[in-house]
Amino acid sequence: MITHDVLIIGAGLSGLRAAVGTSHTFDTAVLTKVHPVRSHSIAAQGGMNAALANVEGSKDDTTEKHTFDTIKGSDYLADQSAARVMCEQAPLLVYELEHMGCPWSRLDDGKIAQRPFGGAGYPRCCYAADRSGHMVLHTLYEKSVELGVKVYEEWLALSLAVDGDRVHGVVAMEMATGKLEIISAKVVVLATGGYGRIFSRSSNALICTGSGIALAYEAGVPVEDMEFVQFHPTTLYGTNILMSEGARGEGGYLVNNKGERFMEKYAPSAMELAPRDIVARSIQTEVNEGRGFNDEYVHLDLRHLGREKIIERLPGIREIALDFAHIDPIDEPVPVQPGQHYSMGGIDTDVHGATRVKGLYAAGECACVSVHGANRLGGNSLLDTTVFGKLAGEAIVKYLESGVEPPKQTVLAAELKKQEEVVQEICSRESTGETVGAILTEMRDVIFKKCGVFRQRGLLEEALAKIKELQERYQRVSIQNSTSRRYNPGLMNVLELRGMLDMAELIVAGAIPREECRGSHWRLDFPGRDDKNWLKHTMAVYSPDGPVFSYTDVEITDYEPKERKY
Amino acid sequence: MSQKNGNTDTRYTFKIFRYNPDVDAQPYYDTFVKSYPRGTTVLEALLNIQETEDDGIAFRFSCRSAVCGSCGMLVNGAPVLACRTQLATLIGDQVLIEPLPNMDIVKDLVVDMKPFWESYRRVEPWLHADSGNEPEKERLQSPDDLHKLDPYINCILCACCYGSCPVLGMEEDYVGPAAISKLFRFMQDSRDQRGEGFLAKFNNQRGLWACHTIFRCIDACPKDIRPTDTIEALRRRLVAYRFKKFFRLVK
What we know:
The complex is a heterodimer.
Chain A: E1 2-9, H1 13-22, E2 28-32, E3 48-49, H2 63-73, H3 80-100, E4 114-115, E5 125-126, H4 132-146, E6 150-153, E7 155-163, E8 166-174, E9 179-190, H5 211-218, E10 223-224, E11 229-236, H6 246-249, E12 253-255, H7 263-266, H8 276-288, E13 298-301, H9 307-313, H10 315-325, E14 334-343, E15 346-348, E16 360-362, E17 367-368, H11 380-401, H12 409-428, H13 436-450, H14 457-474, H15 489-511, H16 531-534, E18 536-541, E19 548-553
Parallel strand pairs in A: 1-2, 1-9, 2-6, 9-16, 15-17
Antiparallel strand pairs in A: 3-5, 4-5, 7-8, 8-9, 10-15, 10-18, 11-14, 12-13, 13-14, 18-19
Chain B: E1 10-18, E2 28-36, H1 42-52, E3 72-75, E4 78-81, E5 94-98, E6 105-107, E7 110-111, H2 114-122, H3 143-147, H4 160-164, H5 166-170, H6 177-187, H7 216-220, H8 227-246
Parallel strand pairs in B: 1-5
Antiparallel strand pairs in B: 1-2, 3-4, 3-5, 6-7
Helix pairs in contact in B: 2-6, 6-8
């Protein structure tokens, strides 16, 4: 049996930032299903918001204004004191990363450069060209190597060992051998990212299955606001690879088939730099009303920025457009359409990352603090991961210093036995013709088509019925290669699919009762935001018959909800 | 699948390297004949073959957009990222897919990258600088100084260079092109304080002098990093350092 004080699941930005914080004082290990630098954080492009006031035009920017923009962007569903904590921590986190070696882009005076981003009153987004996630993730990985943080690479966490109100560790599979192991830990941190791959069109890496949210949900931990799913306005048509908001931050236009910059109809003052929910809906409306191209996409036009600026500031998306669409944005507009991008909802935590289960923490996209509410602003996710990874680390050190009983071996052993049985049962199934591929494809199509940018009751109910059917069919899924568990993708896909279906159910079932439009949740059958009835967080708890919902108040401390205009 | 342009599909014959050390006495190749539309990448084809033909085929992947470095493998003998390589760009309709060389096989196309990461750690790949707790401001760095890190900071650690290096085929203790480029990235950084003396650790046949300048790494790199250039540059700096040290111009 493996034992650590702190076990962090997931090695993206929030997981590594938490590890950097706890490894000085406590025996810390990170467990991840891919090598840390393969984590989806690597794909972040645009940057990280912090009111540094470095740029001409942002001299009177403040963390207060950043807080307000975040709350307004969230359509007032963010908990205001949590948003404040994040925005106040932001400058320090950017400086810390710089001191660790992050190659932020610089201004002529040597300070960290900042660019305008959607829904922000000032150029506030600190960036490293358009490879910000890559640079920050490599920096944090380098720091973790310096600190000698132990990493279990290519291990898949299968379940949390929770007994009553505390966590004792996890059961995980070493992918290279297929062996199940107990990892005993006083503290477990979930830092597993989002669930993008339950949607047919997603900007996310193929590994984004929402597995950590599913682990917590299945262990009885409440999950919050799952119906709020961000659709990024500009993903590359065909593959849905991200085309950074930075492209619009640098001055890119969105153009329909009539050659119009259509955003002037929807957000006359912010134009292309309105928040993502608004821009995504605008693009989808243009396409739905016949003003798109091939009824599928609009154009992201960067040509007027000129070769030099594109090569200097947007080299990454130029490379992606060249590699995956054979289009050079210097010469041609890029075809873009909305695609699933981010999960505002997730495991219910406080600002210290603590969940309702003692010793169990969560940070980053898999968590819901809530700072993003109904719509996250671009540039606030790198910020969220690092701030709450750090704050969780600090809280964990305090929690462990207060004296924590060792994990109960009986609980861990029982969990191992249970998971062994699950794996054995899957491996022993006779083929019924039911496959992971078929269920995945049907789930992805139905949730994107019926629970996407625009929603309405009838379609949502159809989607939920389909997901229930798929959950039932899941019980019969078999694998072809069950003799050897060594690096067995068939087995791993079956094990992860259950959680993906959970995620789909939580999103759709949460979207049905919320009869209003708020941020990313847009009900065609219930126009307008309904603060009287729905200024509330959705909480879902697992039951064998499906999620049980309850609702909690949103924390409004400083800013009364107002109509959002951009 | 990727964007389809209304073209008819093309038929390809995939020969895929297979080896499960727990089951197979020796490696073999599986053949699959499949048709895909223009724009389909090698990774998309592999995922489709895994889904429709054999769910046990093992290979690594993550971002599918050439930024994470997971899917380095040999396609028709060339080390490439599978996600960035379109079938239509290959010559002919035969697609031979094999694991990256110079590393042991875990299963099929999945290689054991421990030696690669071990060599990465040997160069102490982090910024060597005095950093107090809780910095109050950023350190200044001019855009010109930042540009000295280009393109080395774009390395995605995919190990295509490591797998293509003929020296690593003979001398497994060689630190290798990716790690040296990483070291160069830090030694170019105006904020790094490790000093030229750090290079003395690599003044040997497992370090800077192992490279035979065959330039395979330059061909292999999907991010145009030109590792050989960094090896040559550090050799010059090492020689200059030793010269100055000999004449007691530096410590």
